[in-house]
Each structure stands twice: as structure tokens, then as C-alpha cells.
Amino acid sequence: MIQSIDYSAVAVPLILALTAGLVLLLDAFLPARPGGGRLLGVVALGGVAVALAVLVAQAVRGGERRTFCVPPSLGSAASCSFVLDRFTLVFMALVLAAGVVVVLLSMAETSGGRVPVGEWYFLLLGTLTGAVLLAASRDLIMLVVSLELVSLPVFALTAMRRYDGRASEAALKLFLVSVVSTAIMLFGVSLLYGVTGSVHLDRIAAFYASGQSAAPAGVGQGVTTVAIVLVLAGFGFKVAAVPFHFWAADVYQGAPIPVAALLSVISKAAGFAGLVLILTTALASQAAVWAPVVAVIAALTMTAGNVLAMRQRHAVRLLAWSSVAQSGYILAPLAAFAGVPRDAVGASVAYLAFYAAMNLVAFGVVMLVSRARERNDLDDYQGLAFHSPVAALSLAFSLICLAGLPPGLAGLFAKVVVFRAIVDGGLGWLAVVMAVNTVIGLYYYIAWTARLFTPLSTGTHRSGSAPVAVAVGLAVIVTLVFSVAPQVVLSAVG
Amino acid sequence: MASMDGYFGSYVVVVVLLLIGVGIFAGGLFVNRMLRPDRPTPEKLMTYECGVDPVGEGWAQSQIRYYVFTYLYVVFAVDAVFLFPWATVFAAPGFGMTTLAEMFVFLAFIALGILYAWRKRVLAWT
Q: GO terms for CC (chain B) (predicted)?
């Protein structure tokens, strides 16, 4: 009657959730003092670090752990809702490492006194909990619940800077987009459940592998196709894929920069984790239906993102459209799933990991510059190499990585892996579209990099912030490691 | 598409029911308008507000603090949804102490929200 729960398997989300509660209590009961916010930041950072340490221990010990299982007596086989396998571990590591950087960036954001600190860290830890849970979810209900746990705190985080019109606008847009996408996805999920009679991904996969012999009377392929399209559309909103991309720039620009970094890395990684799980686990044998749709979406997403990024004058807006374009590159290998299932998923996850590292460097430096210059236009970066060379070199490195040029080997390796998967999967046209897009991307990444090294006389620059410097340093080190030894990622996902 | 009739076909009943509902409502109003004499006066056109002359516009402001109480109500309503079914089974054979303790863990998490609201002076009216 009572499920036995393997608490060591759920340790990572549990630690994050308990730290979130602790932060909320500390904020409520500690007397309000100047500098009290720093303590909360340290507690939050400690929580994420402990979770990361536990994760490393789990990875070292190896093996697959599963819990929240339905016994075989209630169906065909034992199905588990929470599975800690290699895919889960890679995604959890990505989310937690990005979480460390985002918490460090938050310390600078909250030190200004413009945002309520306790609520900020509580919501941030809530999002991280949702993101690590999502990677481990193996049933539709848990997937949807954890995706909501990722999304809901982000609306509030976006709106946290009170009396800021742009932030409120961004929060409202994000809220509406997210709620609509959840509704669409839930409809798709309910159809899937209606057809297959199961919420567990492995049972849905078994249903389709068996040729739908167990389908209710009168239910045809049409229902499954509608369900797949709806689920794809729902996740398309979350990862800002075309045609559901329009919210990205306004929301990223209006949100505080740590939240924009969170949206572009953690929230996006969570969206992709869910997408990969549903498509390649539950609907693997339906690849003929979804792979062409994913291919078209990927091609449109990378093109639209790159073309829109070329016109931007604002640093965060440029990064927003660039991250839309990068979403296209992450989606592209999934389209080759039918031909090379293992490589396709591996390439997608590897690209996501590389992208997360280099994108966080960019957001970190943008955060540093934005402290001195509120407007944060690309022109504000002119001559950055002359008054803060380390920051400028970091940003230049990350931009070159994002472009995929030789000094930034991480980006290059990521693109090569994706190209190989697409070509092996027989999607030559998609490889051509991606090559053209890489060239378009070069334009705005290089234009921005060139600005950093253009001399400019007006050199008033305020000193940076220690946590942000640490965050940028960590992200740069990870990107450098990925550049020198890409097999760290490639062997982990392969 | 013929095979889809069985599944989506069941939704036709919902649509038909909706149309009948709208039809009865709209038809009633329409017949009423056709049959009744129509002699408007300013008093008749005035919005009916419990027999008192209406005050102010349709867009009225209400105290924002009620909003917070609505939230707190939602917190309690949600835990009640879980408490009622739990209360019927926790003493049944096969459940026992674990089931009892688990509900209190859940309630502790809910209580965190109330505790937070209390410390942030949300519960105080003034």
C-alpha cells in the first residue's frame, strides 16, 4: 500500500527544496539588518553546492537508481516516475552548475537593495528544484508539474524589480506565454494519456512499439499526431522556438540580468530535457511523425534568431535572439533521431552543455558592464578591452565560442557534433541551412567582439563586483575546459 | 479521418449541448423582446442596484488587501483537497504511522507559507 521511497535517489531535489524553505524562514525570522541579504545568498549558494556535491557522489558511485515506482501488479511492468540515469545526471549537473553562476550573479543584483532578497533566493531555488526534478521525471504528470515548478517562480523573479515598467511588462508577457503554452501542452498530454491509457513514458513507448494494438476502439493515428503537435507546440514556447519565439527579446531585456541568464540556460535546459524525454523515450517509434516537424522548426528557429539578432543595438536583446538561434542548433540533431537515435540525443545534450557554459560567460560580463552603464547598449562596450581587459577578453572568448570560430573551440566542437549527427541522419538540407546560419551568426558576434577592442576616449568605469567576477571566472574556466577537453562532455552524454 | 470519429465524435455531444443551451437562452430573450411593449423612461434605463440609485461607475476599486486573503484561502483549500481523502484511509489496515506522518510533513510545508505571511505582516489589517 505504501510506496517505499529511496531518499538517496531524490537527495538532490530534496536538498534544494529544503534550502529554499530554510532561506524563506531565515528571511522571515532574522532581524532586518543591512547586509542580511548576503547571508541568504551564502545559504542559497551553499545549498546548491551541497546538491552538486551529492550529485557528483551519485555519479561516481554509478548505476541507475529509481524510485516512486508503480508495482507490476498495477499494469504490465514496474514503471518508475523518478529515474536517476546518465541522462538525468548530465542535466542535473548542467542545471546545478548554471545555478551556482546564477546565484553568484544574484548576489550582485540583490546587493543594490532594489529587490526583496529572501523571496528572490527562495524563488530561485524553487526553479532549480523544478529543473532537476524535470530531468529525472519519467511520467507525464511529473513532467508537467516540474515544468510548472520551473516556470512559476520565474514570473515573480522577472517582476521582482518593483516600479520598473519594463520588468512588469516582461513578467506579464512571460506569464501569458507560459500559461498558454502549458494549456496547449496539457491538452496534448491528455490526448496521449487518452490514447495510451498510461502516464509513464516507458509504458507509452511500449504501447506504440506494440503497434497500438491496445488502443481504444475508434482511436486512430490522427489523435496521436494531434497530441504530438500540441506537445511540441507547448515545449516550443518554453524553448523559444519559432513560431513561438516572439516573447524572448522583450522578456530577456525587461528581466534582471541574472533572471535573463536563468531563462536562457536553466529554463531552456529544462524545456529541452522535457522535450527530449517525451519525444525520444515515449514517442520514439513515432519519430516519422515528429522528426520532420522538428527539422522545419529547427531550421526556422536558427534563421529567425540569427536574422533578428543582426538588427539589435541592446546587449541583452542581442543575446536573447542569439539564444533563440542556438535553440535551433540544439533542436536540429533531434530531427535526425530516426536515423541515428543515440548520436542525435547525445549531440543535442552536448550542444546544450557547451552552450550553457559559453552563454553564462556572456551574461556574466554583461552583468558587470550593466552595473556601470544602465542602458547596456552595444556602444557601451566600445573600448572595454582598455579599461577592463579581463572582462573584455572573457566576453570576446564567449562570443567567439558562440560563433564557433577556432579560438573558441568549445563552440566549434559543439557545432561539429551537431553537424555530424545531422549528416549521419541523412538531413543534408538542414546541414546546409545550419552552415548558412553559422555564417550569419558570425556577423553579429564578430561585430560585437570588434567593438570591445575599438579605442574610445570616455573611459569612466566603476569597479566590478566580486561575486560576479567569481561567476564569470567559473564560467570561463568551464568553457576553457570544454575547449581543451571536449571529451568531458562528449563521453558523458555518449 | 473516419477512424477519428469515435474519439472526437464524443465531443460532438458537448458541442450540441452547448448550442442548445445558447439557443434556449437567446431564444427566451428574443421572444421576450418580441412580445413585450417597449416604452423606455430614464428611470427604467437606470442600472438596477437593489432599489437604490446607482453610485459611481461600473469600474469600481476594491481594497487590494482582499487579494492576499484570497491567496491564503487557496492555500487552505488546496490542503483540504488532500486532507479529506487521507482522513478516510489513514487508519485503514496497511497504512499506519507512515501515512499519518507524511500528511504532517505536507502540512508543515503549507504552514511555511502561513508562517511567512504572518512574519511579513500580511495577516495584520492595519
A: NADH dehydrogenase complex; plasma membrane
Nearest Cα residue to A167 out of A27, A316, A301: A316
Q: What secondary structure letter does DSSP report for A285?
A: G
Report the gap between the CA of B120 and the closest CA in chain A (Å).
7
- 8-state DSSP, A70: E
Structural domains counted in chain A: 1
Is A461 a domain residue? Answer: yes
Q: Note whether A220 contacts B4, CB cutoff 8 Å.
A: yes
Partner-chain residue, chosen from A28, A219, A222, that has the shortest CB–CB distance to B115: A28
3-state DSSP assignment of residue A34: coil
DSSP category for residue A266: I
Helix axes A341-372, A268-277, angle to 10 degrees: 170
C-alpha torsion B74→B80→B81→B84, nearest 10: -170
Q: In this complex, do B7 and A194 lie within 8 Å of one another by their Cβ atoms?
A: yes
- In Å, how far from its chain's centre is CA B63? 20
Determine whether the interchain pair B115/A222 forms a contact, defined as Cβ–Cβ distance below 8 Å: no
Which of B116, B118, B123 to substitute to test the interface with A, most A CBs within 10 Å? B116
Q: What is the pLDDT of residues A197-248, one digit of tens each?
A: 889 998 899 888 887 666 666 677 888 899 999 999 999 988 998 888 889 9
Q: Which residues of A touch B111 (CB under 8 A)?
A: none
Neighbour tally for A27: CB within 10 Å? 24
Residues in B lying within 8 Å of A, measured between beta carbons: 1, 3-9, 94-96, 98-99, 109, 112, 115-116, 119-120
pLDDT value at A87 more than 70: yes
Residues of B whose CB is below 8 A from A21: 109, 112
Chain A nearest C-alpha distance from B121 (Å): 10
Give the chain A residue nearest B110 (alpha carbons). A21
Structural domain range at position A426: 286-494
> What 3-state class would DSSP assign to A288?
helix
What is the residue type of A236?
Answer: G
Residue type, A120: W
Average pLDDT for residues A363-372, to the nearest whole number?
88
Within-domain flag for A484: yes
- A219 to chain B, any CB pair closer than 8 A? The answer is yes
Q: Is A368 domain-assigned?
A: yes
Whether A113 maps to a domain, the answer reads: no
B83-120 tens-digit pLDDT: 888 888 888 888 888 888 888 988 888 888 888 888 88
Q: Which of B122, B72, B80 is nearest to B103 (CA)?
A: B80
- Per residue in A300-332, pLDDT (tens digit) is 999 999 999 998 889 999 999 999 999 999 999
Please state the ipTM of this predicted complex.
Answer: 0.75
